Amino acid sequence: MFGTGRAELSLTLPSGHTIRQHTDGCLARAQQRLYGDQERWFRASTTVNNLKSRAPEGERTAYRELRAHAVRTARSLLQSADEKGSPR
User: Fold this and answer.
1) Domain extent at residue 25
2) C-alpha distances in Å from residue 8, one per residue of 32, 55, 60, 88
3) Domains in the chain: how many in total?
4) Tell me: the pLDDT tens digits for 22-56?
5) Is 88 helix (H, G, I), strand (E, B) or coil?
């Protein structure tokens, strides 16, 4: 689910804590499908989630853009599944 081996994505926060994530596994595939750019989503979401309002504006903007992309993608996938008569 969370990937194997060493985590490929890494971000060190100003506090010195390093956050890592895999680019394989179910979570990574879902992020790649929904957000379109897993690495950019990882960087933006990690920064925004950990720094809250102190996150740089560029990362907050990327977070909002990628989240909106994910919502559009999810709606499209769900609509397609409904049209095919597939259960969710």
Assistant:
1) 9-84
2) 14, 23, 23, 31
3) 1
4) 999 999 999 999 999 999 999 999 999 999 888 99
5) coil
